[in-house]
Each structure stands twice: as structure tokens, then as C-alpha cells.
């Protein structure tokens, strides 16, 4: 579906873009569960070097960090922008210009970080930019908590999907993200993403991804059994036709008053090794792991409105 200003108005007047289906009239200024009204807000647009190697490469991914989030995990590392506390309004025309500017800076791709609640506006900006010479692959970088009907808006626009698959257990997703239906929604979303992209395609020289799906899974402390269920599901469903990125970078966030006691520590090396051994045992071959000590590093850029 080609997006138009009229269609955007229709979708924003009764918002059901994400699984929260909050029906907010965002066009009139009301805010949805995501914390945003109809106007696009973003916190940064710049080259980003901390994604998986096939996304960042040596030149950096052209990442646009949007404000707000439809999931609101209690352990969120991007809490400043997820809550909508950091963000600058930008127009659809300005967003299309940003995409072209990132291409001129040598970005490997355009990386849309948590854009789901602005999906109609982003689709229109992509159409405009492509009409003005944008040729880079488009990466849709997501919590995984998506509506399939919304993802269909991206068909023909998105080349690479980079979703999380955070939880298998509804108990965990309810406790940490107030979303007991997380696995049901995220697994259906990933199926739609894979339908659109198919197996991974990489450029021979640079090993940058041109098309495909990478599913990220962040281990949480004490939850290796849930991680194993997620990896088993992904491998049973997709074999090695997707990439799986197994992350050990969980760090207890500061300033999160709702953080449960069990999340106030990092993942131990033993927990991470146990999950990696399981992934190897079941035959996962296409993927990424992180080195020890990753949780001590910061993968967050400054949300200082650069590039906006």
C-alpha cells in the first residue's frame, strides 16, 4: 500500500498500529500507549557502529532513533527516549531529507530504530526519499511487539528486519513488559518479516546484509530456560534461514523504580555460556555472539538531536 497524507490521518485518528490497540486519536493531540501523538519526534540521526557486523560494517549504519515505544520494558536501556522524554519534532519532508543525508555520509543502510508507532509517516518519508535517489537497504529495528497488519505497510520498502524476541514465557513478558501476549504477537510478526525478506542475502565483498532477518535475543539474569525455549523455537521454525544474535549485554538500568530485584544484576558468564552451548547443540550456525565484558560497555549514543 502506498502511503498518503489522507491515509495517515485515518490511521492516526483511531490508532491500532501496535498490539496495544489503544484507539487513541493521536491526530487531535492525544497520546497513545507509546507516549506519542501524530507528529514525528526523534532523538538522533547519525552513523551508528554498534549493530551486528553485517549491519554496521566499517562505515556505520544510518540510524534514526525515534522517540516513544509501544512496549515499555522495565529494564529498558533507552529509557530516556522510550518514555518520550528526549525528542525533537520533525516533519515527514525533513525525515526524507535525513535519509538522503545519511546516504551522502556513506551509511551502509537506513536503520529505523523503534519506528512502529510512526510507521505511516515513515513509509511516506521513505517513498519521498526513494523518489529523490535513496538506494540504501532499509533496516526496520524493532522490539518485535508488532501487528502483522502494520508490518504489511513496509512490504516493498523494508529490506532487512532486526526484531527482538525477548520472551517465550507470558509470565515474564507480563511481569517485565506488561504484555502477556508478547510471544504470540512477536512470533507472528517475525513470520511476516521473514515472508517479506526470505533468507539472508549479503554482499560478497563487504559482507553487509542486503536482505534478510536477524532476530536478537537478550539474555536476562536467571532466565536461561526461557532463552533456550526461544532459540529452540527459532531454529525449529527457520533453521538457518535467519540470523540469530544472542546478546549478553543486559545491564541493570538506573532510574527505573519498577525494576524487580531479580533484574538488579548482570547475566553471569556461566549463564551465557550455557545458552551458547545449547545454541550450538541444536545446530544454530547463522548468528552472532558477544564477547565477555560486554555489559560493562555502553552501546547507547548521546540522544542530543544530532542530525535532525
From TrEMBL:
<dbReference type="InterPro" id="IPR013785">
    <property type="entry name" value="Aldolase_TIM"/>
</dbReference>
<dbReference type="Pfam" id="PF04055">
    <property type="entry name" value="Radical_SAM"/>
</dbReference>
<keyword id="KW-0949">S-adenosyl-L-methionine</keyword>
<dbReference type="InterPro" id="IPR058240">
    <property type="entry name" value="rSAM_sf"/>
</dbReference>
<feature type="binding site">
    <location>
        <position position="76"/>
    </location>
    <ligand>
        <name>[4Fe-4S] cluster</name>
    </ligand>
</feature>
<feature type="domain" description="Radical SAM core">
    <location>
        <begin position="51"/>
        <end position="285"/>
    </location>
</feature>
<keyword id="KW-0408">Iron</keyword>
<dbReference type="GO" id="GO:0051536">
    <property type="term" value="F:iron-sulfur cluster binding"/>
</dbReference>
<dbReference type="InterPro" id="IPR007197">
    <property type="entry name" value="rSAM"/>
</dbReference>
<dbReference type="GO" id="GO:0046872">
    <property type="term" value="F:metal ion binding"/>
</dbReference>
<dbReference type="InterPro" id="IPR016431">
    <property type="entry name" value="Pyrv-formate_lyase-activ_prd"/>
</dbReference>
<feature type="binding site">
    <location>
        <position position="69"/>
    </location>
    <ligand>
        <name>[4Fe-4S] cluster</name>
    </ligand>
</feature>
<feature type="binding site">
    <location>
        <position position="73"/>
    </location>
    <ligand>
        <name>[4Fe-4S] cluster</name>
    </ligand>
</feature>
<protein>
    <submittedName>
        <fullName>Radical SAM superfamily protein</fullName>
    </submittedName>
</protein>
<keyword id="KW-0411">Iron-sulfur</keyword>
<keyword id="KW-0479">Metal-binding</keyword>
<dbReference type="GO" id="GO:0003824">
    <property type="term" value="F:catalytic activity"/>
</dbReference>
<dbReference type="InterPro" id="IPR040085">
    <property type="entry name" value="MJ0674-like"/>
</dbReference>
Amino acid at each position: 500500500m502506498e502511503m498518503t497524507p489522507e491515509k495517515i490521518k485515518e490511521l492516526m485518528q483511531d490508532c491500532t498500529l501496535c498490539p496495544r490497540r489503544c484507539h487513541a486519536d493521536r491526530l487531535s493531540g492525544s497520546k497513545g500507549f507509546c507516549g506519542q501523538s501524530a507528529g514525528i519526534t526523534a532523538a538522533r540521526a547519525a552513523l551508528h557502529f554498534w549493530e551486528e557486523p553485517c549491519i554496521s560494517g566499517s562505515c556505520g549504519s544510518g540510524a534514526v532513533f525515534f522517540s516513544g515505544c509501544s512496549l515499555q520494558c522495565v529494564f529498558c536501556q533507552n529509557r530516556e527516549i522510550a518514555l518520550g522524554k528526549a525528542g525533537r519534532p520533525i516533519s515527514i519532508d525533513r525525515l526524507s531529507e535525513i535519509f538522503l543525508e545519511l546516504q551522502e555520509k556513506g551509511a551502509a543502510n537506513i536503520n529505523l530504530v523503534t519506528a512502529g508507532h510512526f510507521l505511516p509517516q515513515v513509509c511516506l518519508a521513505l517513498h519521498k526519499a526513494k523518489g529523490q535517489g535513496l538506494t540504501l537497504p532499509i533496516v526496520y529495528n524493532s522490539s518485535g511487539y508488532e501487528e502483522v497488519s502494520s508490518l504489511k505497510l513496509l512490504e516493498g520498502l523494508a529490506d532487512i528486519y532486526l526484531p527482538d524476541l525477548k520472551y517465550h514465557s507470558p509470565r515474564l513478558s507480563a511481569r517485565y513488559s506488561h504484555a502477556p501476549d508478547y510471544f504470540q504477537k512477536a512470533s507472528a510478526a517475525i513470520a511476516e518479516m521473514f515472508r517479506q525478506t526470505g533468507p539472508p542475502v549479503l554482499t560478497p565483498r563487504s559482507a553487509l546484509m542486503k536482505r534478510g532477518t536477524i532476530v536478537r535475543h537478550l539474555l536476562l539474569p536467571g532466565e536461561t530456560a526461557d532463552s533456550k525455549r526461544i532459540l529452540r523455537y527459532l531454529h525449529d521454525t527457520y533453521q538457518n534461514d535467519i540470523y540469530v544474535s544472542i546478546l549478553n549485554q543486559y545491564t541493570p538500568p538506573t532510574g527505573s523504580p519498577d525494576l524487580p530485584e531479580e533484574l538488579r544484576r548482570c547475566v553471569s558468564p556461566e549463564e551465557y555460556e550455557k545458552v551458547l552451548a545449547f545454541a550450538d547443540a541444536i545446530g544454530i550456525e547463522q548468528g552472532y555472539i558477544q564477547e565477555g565484558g560486554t555489559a560493562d560497555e555502553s552501546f547507547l549514543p548521546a540522544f542530543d538531536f544530532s542530525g535532525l
